Amino acid sequence: MIFDLDKDKALNETYKLMAQTIIPRPIAWVVTEDEGVVNVAPFSYFIGLSSDPASVLISVGHKPDGTPKDTLVNIRKNKKCTICMVKEDNLEKMHLSSKGLDKDVSEAEVFDIETVSLADGYPPMIKSVPAAYFCELNQEIDLGGGSTIPLVLNVKQIFVDDEVITNKERLTISFDPVARIGKSYAFLGEEIEAPVIP
User: Fold this and answer.
1) Residue (of 154, 94, 90) closest to 122 by Cα position
2) Which domains does the chain have, with CATH numbers?
């Protein structure tokens, strides 16, 4: 079956097609801050773009009423965010933080998500995560319509919990991440070694 996206298709139908076929997608737990309010929100449209310069991309939508999500408003205003990797132990609180709250209400406070400030000038990171990226806004990408705004973010500092570094000499990192599959979440489970190329 072919779905022609240039024809009249509902936006949520396109989302369903993409969200259930581009899998698994890592979840970025994005922390922003404005006027003392810490905003915490998960995004599964997230990917690493480059390691030189170090950069990632998140796509931020709008609220049901059409206004920009708080994450987008805060990044546009302050040009910074902290992206936290989600591990299995974070799943419940990460999911709760997807609930839409008023701009002046912090998900960190409402859902008892402990944060810690490690990088000067950046929003705090979530304390229990295995890794976090401290990022600055590089640019917004205009996709020519629609309500989703891709943001290119330059990574300025990276935190990695010592407990997930399995080999310091080779800088080998291992943790149990959470991914998005359609409307569900998944643990990635068993790792498979890459076959040797003769």
Assistant:
1) 154
2) 23-185 (2.30.110.10)
Per-residue pLDDT of the chain (198 residues; tens, 9 = 90+): 666 666 655 556 677 777 766 668 889 999 999 999 999 999 998 999 998 899 999 999 888 888 899 999 999 999 999 999 999 999 999 999 999 889 999 999 999 999 999 999 999 999 999 999 999 999 999 988 778 899 999 999 999 999 998 888 888 888 888 888 878 898 877 677 778 787
Among residues 64, 20, 63, 110, which one has the least CA distance to residue 72?
A: 63
Beta-carbon contacts of residue 98 (< 8 Å; ≥ 6 apart): 41, 42
Residues 103-129 as b or e (16 or more Cβ within 10 Å = b): eeebbbeebebebeeebeebbbbbebb
Kindly report the number of other CB atoms within 10 A of residue 67's CB atom: 11
> Residues in the chain, how many?
198
- CB neighbour list of residue 94: distance below 8 Å, 6 or more residues apart: 27, 29, 42, 86, 178
